[in-house]
Design goal:
This protein is an alpha/beta fold. The protein has four helices and seven strands. It has a five-stranded mixed beta sheet with strand order 4-3-1-5-6, with helices on both faces. Strands 2-7 form a two-stranded antiparallel ribbon. A hairpin with a 4-residue loop joins strand 3 (32-38) and strand 4 (43-50). The radius of gyration is 14 Å and the shape is globular.
Length: 126
């Protein structure tokens, strides 16, 4: 796992996962969050956060500094808490491959990112 030296154009993304390959977990029930640094031309697995106990506040504390978190579902209280911490939530109803989503993000970052990603990049001063 390699940390990227420059933060220009890089977003930090967490994926809620139980199998380590797919976005396949409810925010509150995820066994792990895989954290990636993603830019238009590169993606690095930054870290893996293991979740031992189902404690929303503890999980959110472990995700501080993350720009976007993906999951299959989330409760309204947890959603409000992550948004208040500046983390953008993205919910997928279906299970999606992390690698496919990383590829989509890289393309978006290299082209014309949606407004919410532009805001994240501007907020970071990248």
């Amino acid at each position: 796992m390699q940390k990227t030296s420059s933060s220009k154009g890089i977003i930090k993304v967490a994926f809620a996962t139980n199998d380590g390959k797919n976005i396949d977990a409810h925010f509150g029930g995820a066994k792990q969050f895989h954290i990636y640094n993603i830019s238009s031309d590169k993606s690095d697995l930054f870290s893996v956060i293991n979740i031992e106990e189902k404690d929303t506040d503890e999980t959110i504390a472990k995700l501080l500094g993350i720009d976007i978190v993906y999951f299959t579902n989330i409760g309204p209280t947890a959603a409000a808490k992550i948004i208040n911490k500046g983390i953008f939530p993205i919910k997928y109803k279906d299970i999606v491959s992390m690698s496919a989503e990383i590829d989509k993000l890289k393309v978006m970052l290299g082209a014309n990112p949606p407004p919410f990603i532009k805001k994240i990049i501007e907020k970071k001063g990248a």
